Amino acid sequence: MTTSLLQAVLDGTIAPADAIAQLPSETSAFDCSPAAQQQQLEHLRECYPQLQAFCAETLGWSAVNLETLWRLWLPLAEQIADLRRERDRPIIQGFLGGQGTGKTTLTQILSCLLKQWGYGVAILSIDDIYKTYGDRQQLQQVDPRLRWRGPPGTHDIATGIQVLQQVRSGSADPVLMPRFDKSLHGGMGDRIAPEPISNIDILLFEGWFVGMRPLDAAQFDTAPWPISSEDDRAFALDCNHRLQDYLPLWDLLDALVVLHPGDYRLSKQWRQEAEQKMKQQGRSGMSDAEIVVFVEYFWRALHPELFLTPLLKTADLVIEVQPDHMPGQVEKPGAAIAD
């Protein structure tokens, strides 16, 4: 019903005020008051054409899911804009999501919406602050377990802190946003020239463990599979210890959104789907056996059952991600992280 009603508003066959009376009342993490819905309908009509064009050109979508736009993208964008006005300075909005949860797509859509409302928006992935190829080669000599980029210890944290501090300060100078090309050095990747971005009001900072905090070492005494051997446990403890170095970076976040699959093991299925899609496009991809090794490596580093679970109670927003990648329930368990 919601989709047909929203389409009628876009077509001009029903007035927004009449639509509000027919919209289903539901419990939501967002403001569902008539005034909020009125504003959201106005934003819907203003933003839909450009968002539709963006999704077609950038994401290759034939259509925008109106239900998701109404239930999640618009109210979340409005919430981020409200936080920017409340803080009266540039803000850093964090996004935590594992493989296949859609964090990159979400930040792209939010950026499109917020830019239409006049905000200067930049996107930064934790991947963008990887150490250089040369530095990671040296790192592997010290610790061969860090054979893949991604776990704690493979990032240039100082650069990340510098960038986030510069954004929050509202510097008049362009911010040199780090960028990383994963295709370089046979897929090992390397840093490339930074992208200068001016007048940033909102930085959307996303990554697979953004906001995760170190745990008490005792929690690893009975760690979940695949942390099964003493070597696995030692690797997990070392990654846990390295998370301490990331806390100054997390402390610069103004808020954190967690994209949470009901079952973390879905990331293996989603990775397989992504690799199959790449192969269909004529690109190289990992075999199913290689995917198992790859995904389980990251579970050994920062196991979702251990590190993600606490954030479900403290994050500003938790978005359930269903097996088909669509958003499910949205909850608002915590308060803003930083002032």
Please, could you describe this protein's structure?
Strands 2-5-1-6-7-8 form a 6-stranded mixed β-sheet. It has a two-stranded antiparallel ribbon with strand order 3-4. The chain has about 350 residues and is α/β, with parallel strands linked by helices. It has helices at about 1-10, 15-20, 35-60, 65-85, 105-115, 135-140, 155-170, 185, 230-240, 245-250, 265-280, 290-300, 305, 310-315; strands at about 90-95, 120-125, 175-180, 190-195, 200-205, 255-260, 315-320, 325-330. Helix content is about 45%, strand content about 15%.
- Classification by helices and strands: alpha/beta
Summarize model confidence as the mean pLDDT: 92
CATH architecture: 3-Layer(aba) Sandwich
Write the CATH homologous superfamily.
P-loop containing nucleotide triphosphate hydrolases
Radius of gyration: 21 Å
The spatial strand order of the largest sheet comes to 2-5-1-6-7-8
CATH topology: Rossmann fold
The helicity comes to 40-55%
- List segments where confidence is low: pLDDT < 50 over at least 5 consecutive residues: 335-339
**Total helical segments:** 14
